[in-house]
């Protein structure tokens, strides 16, 4: 073999060795790049999920804040509604007041309609079993005709807002007459 052929062979072997090392280095770099890409992709997905959760929480907090603000306003308006109801209970039955009475009833219905559009509902109490979560007992009435704990009358209407009790209904609750010799506290 000539000197030129030996140099050629040696350069080819060095090139193959360099090429082998280069291929393995390139493969290692490619695998590392793929691992990093996978990690960045997973990180991006977590960040996106966190952002979606953040937006949902902010929307829930905004809704809760709005509901609390509505609750405060409605609580201040309920005494006005009570006054309308009391006024309508004592309307004189005189012909000359009928147009005025009709106007007051119209304002009352509109007022109730507005409250209902905000999610205010009246608590049903009369004839129901006493529920301490919705009713507030202000007195009791002895009765043989009703079971213990039945609501006999409503002193002040109660209301819910968004399904939560805003103001409990004040009620009179039935109590069975005691037999002779029994203590009223039993």
Automatic annotation (TrEMBL):
GO MF term (any one): protein-folding chaperone binding
Chain segments carrying region Disordered: 1-30
Keywords in alphabetical order: Chaperone, Coiled coil
GO biological process: protein folding
The keyword Chaperone appears for this protein: yes
Family matches, as CDD domains: GrpE
Domain of life: Eukaryota
SUPFAM superfamilies linked: Coiled-coil domain of nucleotide exchange factor GrpE, Head domain of nucleotide exchange factor GrpE
Coiled-coil ranges from the UniProt annotation: 30-64
Keyword Kinase on entry: no
Family under the similarity heading: Belongs to the GrpE family.
Stored HAMAP family: GrpE (MF_01151)
PANTHER family for the chain: GRPE PROTEIN, GRPE PROTEIN HOMOLOG, MITOCHONDRIAL
Protein name in the entry: Protein GrpE
Organism, scientific name: Geodia barretti
Lineage, uppermost ranks: Eukaryota, Metazoa, Porifera, Demospongiae, Heteroscleromorpha
